[in-house]
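Re: [ENG-882] Designed sequences occasionally contain unexpected residues at chain ends

Forwarding the minimal case from QA. Structure tokens:
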């Protein structure tokens, strides 16, 4: 996707003013980053004939990622390729591993990891120092809610679906782990 292509079209069509370009470029990028995980999930879900499960796994990722921070790639194209492969790899765990204890432990480890590490501030995703506490508390609250839902689903014997919520938390946490040593962005 050429940077600003949609914004250029909106300006040429007299829908927006040229001076609003930066705002609309940001909005378009934000929409791409919001919907890309669901598109990736849809494709992966269709490959495995498990669309509901794949979309369910995307929910915790989308909800948590903006408050947790973590590893980023500079290139959108490379990001989409790596994201798709990561999503596919972690989704495969849900397809091939059926041990409930594994998911209990993974859910707790992912939630604790998210709570302790969030937010990871990277050079291209800066956060005001006054908002860091807000992001941390939001990440803790959201991960706790998701963890409770995971365990309620297990208790209700709907563990099949809770495993994919767990894997969505694992995906989010796993993108924080490479940053522990300080590396946030790869070219």
């Amino acid at each position: 996707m050429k940077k600003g292509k949609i914004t250029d079209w909106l300006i040429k069509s007299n829908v927006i003013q040229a001076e609003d370009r930066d705002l609309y470029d940001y909005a378009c990028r934000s929409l791409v980053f919001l919907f890309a995980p669901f598109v990736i999930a849809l494709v992966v879900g269709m490959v495995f004939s498990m669309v509901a499960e794949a979309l369910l796994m995307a929910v915790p990722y989308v909800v948590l990622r903006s408050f947790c921070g973590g590893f980023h790639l500079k290139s959108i194209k490379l990001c989409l390729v790596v994201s798709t492969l990561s999503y596919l790899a972690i989704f495969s765990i849900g397809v091939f591993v059926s041990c409930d204890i594994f998911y209990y432990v993974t859910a707790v480890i992912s939630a604790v990891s998210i709570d302790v590490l969030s937010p990871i501030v990277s050079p291209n995703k800066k956060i005001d120092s006054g908002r860091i506490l807000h992001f941390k508390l939001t990440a803790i609250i959201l991960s706790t809610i998701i963890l409770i839902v995971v365990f309620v689903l297990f208790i209700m014997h709907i563990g099949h679906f809770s495993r994919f919520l767990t894997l969505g938390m694992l995906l989010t946490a796993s993108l924080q782990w490479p940053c522990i040593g300080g590396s946030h962005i790869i070219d």
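QA comment: On inspection the terminal residues look reasonable. The chain has one domain: 37-186. Proposing we downgrade this to a documentation issue.
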